[in-house]
Amino acid sequence: MTTTPSGDGTRCVHAGEPAAEPGAPLVPQPVLAAPYHLGDAADFYGRATNPTWRALESAIGSLDGGECVVYATGMAAISALLRVTLRAGDTVVLPSDGYYLARAYVREHMSALDLDLRLVPTAADWDASHVRGARLVLVETPSNPGLDVCDIAAVAELAHAEGALLAVDNTTATPLGQLPLDLGADVVVASDTKALSGHSDVLLGHTTTRDVALLARLRAERTASGAVPGPLETWLAHRGLGTLDLRLTRQAENAAALYRALRDHPRVRGLRWPGAAADPAHPTARTQMRRFGGVLTFELESAAAVAGFLGAARLVAAATSFGGLHSSADRRAQWGDPVPEGLVRFSCGCEDPEDLVADVLRALRA
Ligand SMILES: *Cc1c(COP(=O)(O)O)cnc(C)c1O
């Protein structure tokens, strides 16, 4: 692999590529094996190691700036981190406005540990009281679905002063948008089901860290728990990653165009996109993010208004994910997010900006 410093497009295209060898495939191929012929090679059984994982881990690790461990889903990565780091009676800080299943997992599936679960809004005025006594602080920035941000370096300093680990859910930003480890975080977690894979056909997640002891525990726990990704999904994610720069560029272009079109729209309230200079998250986002993504949120009048909008739009799928090639949107309150009934999370795809804006404006008139 080349070690020359290079731009985002170059890094995505070449991330995790095998050494050039005559007769070998140009790009990594999926290896589906369960058992291997035994000997003194790395691979012996597919729940413990797999060459297709290693290729993607090398790719994502090179972008995140650490050692990556891939998982079957984003929640598999998050729950593995919680299981590996938390002991009975520990305090864990989670975002009150972040991905809802992280909170639900601690409440409903780790109750035997009697954890002290402290919920802090992403946009809190963070100080020592928020992290006091914590073993693990997990932030999500930009948060999902509210798109608030927090200052990763400042929270890292607070967490470390308490002896806590700081984890950042980097799903929305992707490694091209933000490098939490460079900002002082101890570990990145992410759902690569979203923009990193980008084609709405794969579930995948990862952790990345520079902490070798934590890395070893995460790897060992993955082998023991079996939360491993399928090699075919891993390979599809790697193939998708190659175009992440191109896709994010178009998605952000679409988000900027849609933001301009919706900013003064009479039916739209609470429009948020951290990339906009007028967004409350922008001052902090600008200092720690390298670029912005394609997800916006806004409010329509009611749940019925959102259903009407999604029914009328031709280019916007009613679907609950984000970061894919296809524009999509969903009403978050239906999943139990603590948000207004009419709040829409809108994920800009890679359509042309004029087409997408025209379709959204037409659907809002319908
Ligand atoms: C989707 C998502 C997850 C969960 O990822 P899965 O791949 O669906 O398990 C976690 N965090 C954030 C911010 C997400 O958007």
From TrEMBL:
Cofactor dependence: pyridoxal 5'-phosphate
Gene Ontology cellular component terms for the protein in this record:
cytoplasm
GO BP, sorted A to Z: cysteine biosynthetic process via cystathionine; transsulfuration
Q: Which UniProt keywords apply?
A: Lyase, Pyridoxal phosphate
Q: What InterPro entries does the record point to?
A: Cys/Met-Metab_PyrdxlP-dep_enz, PyrdxlP-dep_Trfase, PyrdxlP-dep_Trfase_major, PyrdxlP-dep_Trfase_small
Keyword Zinc-finger assigned: no
Give all N6-(pyridoxal phosphate)lysine modified positions. K194
Q: Which organism is it from?
A: Actinokineospora bangkokensis
**Highest classification ranks of the organism:** Bacteria, Bacillati, Actinomycetota, Actinomycetes, Pseudonocardiales
Identify the PANTHER family for this entry: CYSTATHIONINE GAMMA-LYASE-RELATED (PTHR11808:SF85), TRANS-SULFURATION ENZYME FAMILY MEMBER (PTHR11808)
Q: Does the keyword Transferase apply?
A: no
Pfam families given in the database record: Cys_Met_Meta_PP (PF01053)
Name the domain of life this protein comes from: Bacteria
UniProt lists the family membership as follows: Belongs to the trans-sulfuration enzymes family.
- Tell me where the signal peptide lies: none
What name does the UniProt record give this protein?
Answer: Cystathionine gamma-lyase
Matching SUPFAM superfamilies: PLP-dependent transferases
Q: Which GO terms describe its molecular function?
A: cystathionine gamma-lyase activity; pyridoxal phosphate binding
- For region Disordered, the annotated ranges are 1-20
